[in-house]
Design goal:
The protein is α+β, with helices and mostly antiparallel strands. It folds into three domains: about 120 residues, Trna Endonuclease, Chain: A, domain 1; about 70 residues, Winged helix-like DNA-binding domain superfamily/Winged helix DNA-binding domain (Arc Repressor Mutant, subunit A, Orthogonal Bundle), CATH 1.10.10.10; about 140 residues, no CATH class. It is built from 14 helices and 16 strands. The strands form four sheets. A seven-stranded mixed β-sheet has the order 1-2-3-4-5-6-7, with helices on both faces. Strand 2 and strand 3 form a beta hairpin. Helix 4 crosses helix 5 and helix 7 crosses helix 12. It is elongated and about 75 Å long.
């Protein structure tokens, strides 16, 4: 829902009240906004909910135009202090709340609502829980998008930040990742807003590699960044992997379940997923036959991430190259069937063995 409308603070508050009214049971009443005593700190908006049995609750809102992930902890402290001061349920509200901000508010145990209809309200008395989805982007934002982890520059920066456990200058990060200086600054700026990276004394550090991995996986699924084709190797997956090991002159990186078993075996792999530089060349060299009905080999040809999947590969016990754990985990989270569960299993191994896969 793109729009040329510009919302004032008063209009944001009016929409918040309307969103609440529209989603409450018909037997409930909404009263407000209410005027409160002029003392600090005070809520930006206060409304009262009254259930059909007469029980009531006062909702005290801290309202912003936009909230960044890095702002959540500070705003949470503010709204909780207000709730203690005035007596009521603390709620964070904004013109728009991004997915990551909503996740952070839930983790912090706070209710929230935005003017597009994204909301999660939990009240003990009178007991009510409302959860609804609005827009996935800010329809009132003008100018350049606030950023994502899509595209080759973001993939290069994300993989370097994931693969190495260290502090970075921008120069060091560009040298390690292959991203341009401008791209690195743009990605780092976005990651700072998302509270995924902090900066101190000209150096950047990842605050939560697992959340960074999940954010990158969500923004850049292999289905959207690669050309994907399915094949059959008549002699089975093991025979195919032997071919890959014997043809090391071809750029290749095994990912998915086959690669994950190098670190955390979950279940036997039904198909081998392999990054290659050219599907046509490698499928012919390996003698694969196209088969979309019952494939046991899936070839992935990068389209928008360059050579990132081939970075920091390792040699498996069988001699074939496997992608780095961060790449494998991201791919599994986006895979079909049981693969997301395998991705979660691998991430648990990564959390317990960080020194074994993150380089200094």
């Amino acid at each position: 829902m793109a729009t040329d409308e510009v919302l004032t603070a008063a209009e944001v508050e009016r929409r918040i009240v309307q969103v609440m009214r529209d989603r409450l049971p018909e037997t409930w009443k909404v009263t407000g906004p209410a005027e409160l005593q002029q003392r600090s700190p005070r809520p930006d908006l206060s409304i009262q909910l009254r259930a059909s049995d007469g029980k009531a609750a006062r909702l005290l809102f801290k309202v912003k135009q936009v909230i960044e992930r890095r702002d959540v902890a500070h705003i949470a402290d503010q709204v909780r202090l207000i709730a203690v001061e005035f007596g009521g349920v603390p709620v964070v509200a904004a013109r728009y709340l991004s997915t990551s901000v909503r996740e952070a508010l839930v983790e912090d145990g706070l209710s929230y609502v935005d003017a597009t209809g994204n909301m999660r309200i939990a009240i003990d008395s009178p007991a009510i829980f409302i959860s609804d989805r609005g827009e996935d982007r800010d329809p009132w934002r003008k100018g350049r998008p606030r950023g994502t982890l899509k595209g080759e520059p973001a993939a290069r920066v994300a993989r370097a930040l994931l693969d190495y456990n260290r502090d970075w200058t921008v120069r060091e990060l560009t040298a390690a990742s292959g991203a341009s200086t401008g791209a690195a600054y743009r990605v780092l700026e976005y990651l700072q807003r998302e509270d995924l990276v902090i900066k101190g004394d000209k150096r950047y550090r990842v605050t939560d590699w697992e959340r960074l991995l999940r954010a990158w996986s969500s923004d850049a699924a292999f289905q959207t960044t690669t050309r994907v084709m399915a094949f059959i190797e008549p002699r089975g997956v093991d025979a195919f992997l032997a071919k890959v090991a014997a043809e090391l002159t071809l750029p290749a990186a095994v990912t998915g379940s086959v690669a994950a078993k190098q670190w955390a075996t979950y279940a036997p792999a039904k198909a081998a997923y392999v990054y290659v530089s050219s599907i046509q060349e490698t499928s012919e060299r390996w003698g694969l036959r196209p088969n979309a009905a019952a494939p046991n080999v899936i070839l992935l040809e990068p389209r928008t991430v360059g050579d990132v999947p081939f970075q920091n590969t390792a040699r498996a016990e069988g001699g074939y190259p496997v992608a780095a754990p961060a790449q494998v985990a991201a791919d599994l989270l986006n895979g079909p069937g049981r693969e997301p569960s395998e991705g979660e299993y691998l991430i648990e191994w990564m959390k317990a063995n960080e020194e074994r896969w993150r380089r200094d």
